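To: structure subgroup
Subject: Chain for Friday's discussion

All,

I'm putting the inputs and outputs inline so they're searchable in the archive.
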Amino acid sequence: MPNGPVLIVAPHALDEVLGCGGTIALATAAGRKVHILVLCGDGAGHDGKRRAAASGAAELLGSEPPRFAGFPENASDAVPLGKVVRTEENAAGSALHEFGGLRMGREPSSSVTDPDGRFWRIDNLSCADAAIWPHQGSANSYLTITAVALRNASRLAAALETEGRAMAAQ
């Protein structure tokens, strides 16, 4: 894991624990400050219960208390991207995308993953985000991250399909 603070961005309260609980625990155990930003929810009804549970989980995992942006449920696609970006930048005071923690390459001796994001030393584990890049190439890399994730997912699916056919033939 690279040094510095960690920013977890979750669509709803508790998504950060379900999706990143292990990463949060590892980062806080290593002495890193973990910030959690929950994008959607108004705090009423079930969302209020999820927020309370997320705050308790954050305390148990050792992260900073979650911040709640309060974007509307079921209408998050209508929120201007600039507003989301400003909220994310203010959560931890750092950049939007983390780069380089899991460098990809053609040799296991100089990289963590192969060019398709598959880990060299851990079977059945892949990465499909900017962590596999050695550095950021543009100011906003969202579309490139998405393209690489889709490419890696397609290649992984094709490899699994090929493995499945080979196993069925045996």
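Points worth raising on Friday:
The longest helix spans residues 142-169.
Confidence is low (pLDDT under 50) at residues 91-96.

D.
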